[in-house]
Amino acid sequence: MKKTVWPFLLLMLSSAFKGLRANSTDLELTKLKFFLTYVRLVKTLRLLFMSLLSMGVCLVFLLTAIILLHVSLFLYAPWDRETKMVVGLTCSIFYLLATLVVFYQAFASDKWLRIFHADGIMNHLHKEVGQKDMTNPDE
């Protein structure tokens, strides 16, 4: 909170020291915008914290389930050691490949551009740059 209040206090002190008396409506409007921004920041941080916490809890439960599945499979399955090792390595390779696929799918730049509707902006910029290169080949 200190970081958000500090610029506002500096603004107030600088106007007081310089003898510049701001219009009361401008000052009230500035205060209103400041407090509105502060409330939005608190709301955004609350939602971010809740989503990160819930993702962390879900990740812990998922990892616990995977570990318990494998422990119970390897302890109670009537397989010899070589078969258990092959099954364990196969599961590990599958999890690694699945993680890589999900990672590349979730963080692909094309997908994020589509989600935030920035692909149209990128296409427009590419068209403008292409037209500029065609009209002035010296540039």
Number of helices: 5
Quaternary assembly: single chain
Radius of gyration, rounded? 29 Å
Tell me the helix content: over 70%
Question: Major beta sheet, specifics?
Answer: none
Q: How many angstroms does the end-to-end distance come to?
A: 49 Å
Strand content: under 5%
Overall structural class, as computed from helix and strand content, comes to mainly alpha
Helix and strand run: HHHHH
How would you describe the shape? Answer: elongated
Find the count of extended strands (DSSP E, 2+ residues): 0
What does this structure look like?
The protein has 139 residues and is an all-alpha fold. 86% of the residues lie in helices and 0% in strands. It is elongated and about 85 Å long. The model has no long low-confidence stretch (mean pLDDT 81).
Key descriptive features of the protein:
single chain, 139 residues, mainly alpha, 86% helix, 0% strand
Chart the SSEs and their pairings:
Blueprint: H1 2-17, H2 24-76, H3 81-106, H4 109-115, H5 119-135
How is this structure best summarized?
With 139 residues, the chain is an all-alpha fold.
